[in-house]
């Protein structure tokens, strides 16, 4: 009798686990089917554009990296899964609540508009999809290239493990090791760092997506005695030009801006994994 009960419990657990996998698989298919419509993609993009301004672009891009940057190849863990909504109290995510709030405004407006567009059922937009689209629009609104974003990501139901994002105090070897765990090369590390051209870190215009980051980085203004110049960048930025391998890739000022975009976006494609971003550049 005891053996029978144990077998029954095992069978029950197996059935529940299988049912959960089936439900998740069906939900994924439903989401991909619902979001495959071109009108749906355009609708989402239109609504995101209304809330992502130049002033919010840097924060939104930071939100993208802090959600996707937890990815590690070992165990295929983390990544663009919306887990950032559970991680806002972590020290490394300070200030991201405002950026997420902008995305939340989009989510509310989008659901209302979608119900008007499709009377059958409201579109389920995941946090991960919403953040990915917002990131693409943040690049575009600041003069960067168009980044089509494929939809259909499922959100995590729990936070990702801590300690996966690179610390601002890391030296070049530490940065390279962190990015290597994400499947990214040193060139991609330097390229992704170029997103710091946006915002208030002192690399050119805070609202223009260009290659000013690399030009100013090579000048090392933080070595000046006192003044605002000494406040430019983070220790992890400074580390790039103190490392011979990173320095080779930092000399992007000799490349066209389009080449900088392309290299940066190849890096983003590798990092975001499930985001499946691609870039189209006009000649």
UniProtKB/TrEMBL annotation:
| Database matches in InterPro entries | Ccp1-like, Haem_peroxidase, Peroxidases_AS, Peroxidases_heam-ligand_BS
GO MF, any single term: peroxidase activity
Q: Which GO terms describe its biological process?
A: cellular response to oxidative stress; hydrogen peroxide catabolic process; response to reactive oxygen species
Any idea where the Plant heme peroxidase family profile domain is? 57-199
Q: Which residues cross the membrane?
A: 12-31
Please report a single Pfam family linked to this protein: peroxidase
User: Any coiled-coil ranges, and where?
Assistant: none
For this UniProt record, the keywords arranged alphabetically read as follows: Iron, Membrane, Metal-binding, Oxidoreductase, Transmembrane, Transmembrane helix
Family the entry assigns: Belongs to the peroxidase family. Ascorbate peroxidase subfamily.
Full protein name? Plant heme peroxidase family profile domain-containing protein
